[in-house]
TrEMBL record:
<dbReference type="InterPro" id="IPR016143">
    <property type="entry name" value="Citrate_synth-like_sm_a-sub"/>
</dbReference>
<protein>
    <recommendedName>
        <fullName>Citrate synthase</fullName>
    </recommendedName>
</protein>
<dbReference type="Pfam" id="PF00285">
    <property type="entry name" value="Citrate_synt"/>
</dbReference>
<dbReference type="InterPro" id="IPR036969">
    <property type="entry name" value="Citrate_synthase_sf"/>
</dbReference>
<dbReference type="GO" id="GO:0036440">
    <property type="term" value="F:citrate synthase activity"/>
</dbReference>
<keyword id="KW-0012">Acyltransferase</keyword>
<dbReference type="InterPro" id="IPR024176">
    <property type="entry name" value="Citrate_synthase_bac-typ"/>
</dbReference>
<comment type="similarity">
    <text>Belongs to the citrate synthase family.</text>
</comment>
<dbReference type="InterPro" id="IPR019810">
    <property type="entry name" value="Citrate_synthase_AS"/>
</dbReference>
<dbReference type="InterPro" id="IPR011278">
    <property type="entry name" value="2-MeCitrate/Citrate_synth_II"/>
</dbReference>
<comment type="pathway">
    <text>Carbohydrate metabolism; tricarboxylic acid cycle; isocitrate from oxaloacetate: step 1/2.</text>
</comment>
<dbReference type="InterPro" id="IPR002020">
    <property type="entry name" value="Citrate_synthase"/>
</dbReference>
<keyword id="KW-0808">Transferase</keyword>
<dbReference type="InterPro" id="IPR016142">
    <property type="entry name" value="Citrate_synth-like_lrg_a-sub"/>
</dbReference>
<keyword id="KW-0816">Tricarboxylic acid cycle</keyword>
<dbReference type="GO" id="GO:0050440">
    <property type="term" value="F:2-methylcitrate synthase activity"/>
</dbReference>
Length: 375
């Protein structure tokens, strides 16, 4: 039996129904439409999982091939969006670029009718990697990349190919595929709930997804993978990491990449990404980063019984694949757009505007004081 959750932050309260995902039902499990995350991460490609979430069932071979072709055909960015991305400064945060890019696309390709929702979701899924990498490569390397990439069918490989202007390394493509699956969906987390609240007002898909991006940006949610990397990067040995972590705990600092609002024992995504991180560390001949990460995991468990969430070993895994830290959370967006869009559709299918109540804590009755008479 999972331990009871209660307290602030609406913890433990049901805020609606979903057929998309279960989180921590048995303390640590995660399923998408009934399929265990371990099975999906091992056997599926990300497009198969996206189809499962957005269309309600696993695709057969023909459906998957058609779906991949459809997503590939949607990769090109409109010229006006490229021009807008070129105006965003190099030192902007990539999550702000994602937010603007998504919102700007909503101006150019507005969802005017909910009958367009599947196509709008597919278009966003196909273009979000291009939005971030077109801006990144233009602002950092001065190149205007081709975002169509017809020789790379998978979204995972497409991301890496646009980043490195090279054919993706097969191992890296495999890890990226697993990572996108792990990040695709997670029930009523903060960003998905944001998207659902927006959807409940009958707003458009781009607004819902833009809101989701804003909520994911924070370090208590998706931004933790970036924050975890910034934390572990300076630590050159496990002993140095242990000493620094103990200091943080003594100072009552939050350690990014640890703990979870729902899981009480472990985050099932951690075992999977940790294994990939280990494999990548061997591939690149890493001398310390994986060992530092493992020591952090041991110390946090020993000291606080806090476990790594999905974000912690993503940091080292992405680093081993040569991905800049600032792109970590945008990758989360490229994956989670599937979950967000599926939740928007589910909310629309059985909608009532989401409007909870609040416990008032202000003054009972206040006396009006004229402007000139105020102290
Ligand atoms: C993909 C994702 O979004 S996963 C989450 C990513 N976020 C992070 O990694 C940020 C770091 N973690 C955290 O801030 C929290 O664990 C959250 C936001 C994920 C969950 O928050 P909560 O549900 O409030 O955590 P929970 O109720 O389990 O906290 C219990 C206690 O452990 C402490 N704690 C929880 N996580 C951490 C942490 N990472 N570092 C230090 N202490 C922590 C809390 O401060 C709390 O202490 P208190 O009782 O003295 O106040
Ligand atoms: O569920 C949560 O609160 C956060 C999380 O792990 C996710 O969104 O993947």
């Amino acid at each position: 039996m999972a331990k009871e959750l209660s307290g602030a932050g609406l913890r433990g309260q049901s805020a609606g129904e979903t057929a998309l995902c279960t989180v921590g039902k048995t303390g640590s499990g995660l399923t998408y439409r009934g399929y265990d995350i371990e099975v999906l991460a091992e056997k599926a490609c990300f497009e198969e999982v996206a189809y499962l979430l957005l269309h309600g069932k696993l695709p057969n071979r023909t459906e998957l091939s058609q779906y991949r072709n459809k997503l590939m055909s949607l990769r090109e960015l409109p010229q006006a969006l490229k021009a807008a991305l070129e105006l965003i400064p190099k030192d902007a945060h990539p999550m702000d670029v994602m937010r603007t890019g998504c919102s700007f696309l909503g101006n150019l390709e507005t969802e005017t009718d909910f009958s367009q929702q599947q196509d709008t979701a597919d278009r966003l899924l196909a273009t979000l990697p291009a939005i971030i990498l077109y801006w990144y490569r233009f602002s950092h390397d001065g190149v205007r990349i081709d975002t169509s990439n017809p020789s790379v069918p998978s979204l995972a490989g497409h991301f890496l190919a646009m980043l490195h202007s090279d054919t993706p390394n097969p191992l890296h493509e495999q890890v990226m595929n697993a990572s996108l699956i792990l990040y695709a969906e997670h029930e009523f987390n903060a960003s998905t709930f944001t998207a659902r609240v927006c959807a409940s007002t009958l707003s458009d898909m781009h607004s819902c997804i833009t809101g989701g991006i804003g909520s994911l940006r924070g370090p208590l949610h998706g931004g933790a993978n970036e924050a975890a990397m910034d934390m572990i990067e300076p630590w050159k040995t496990p002993d140095e990491a242990e000493a620094a972590l103990l200091d943080k705990l003594a100072n009552k600092e939050k350690v990014m990449g640890f703990g979870h609002a729902i899981y009480r024992e472990r985050d099932p995504r951690n075992d999977i990404i940790k294994q990939w991180s280990k494999r990548l560390s061997e591939e690149v001949g890493d001398t310390h980063l994986y060992a530092v990460s493992e020591r952090c995991e041991a110390v946090m468990w020993r000291e606080k019984k806090l476990f790594c969430n999905a974000d912690f070993f993503h940091a080292s895994a992405y680093r081993f694949m040569g991905i800049p830290t600032l792109l970590f959370t945008p990758i989360f967006v490229c994956a989670r757009v599937t979950g967000w869009a599926a939740h928007v559709m589910e909310q629309r299918a059985n909608n009532r505007i989401i409007r909870p109540s609040a416990d008032y804590t202000g003054p009972e009755k206040a006396q009006w004081v004229e402007l000139d008479d105020r102290p």
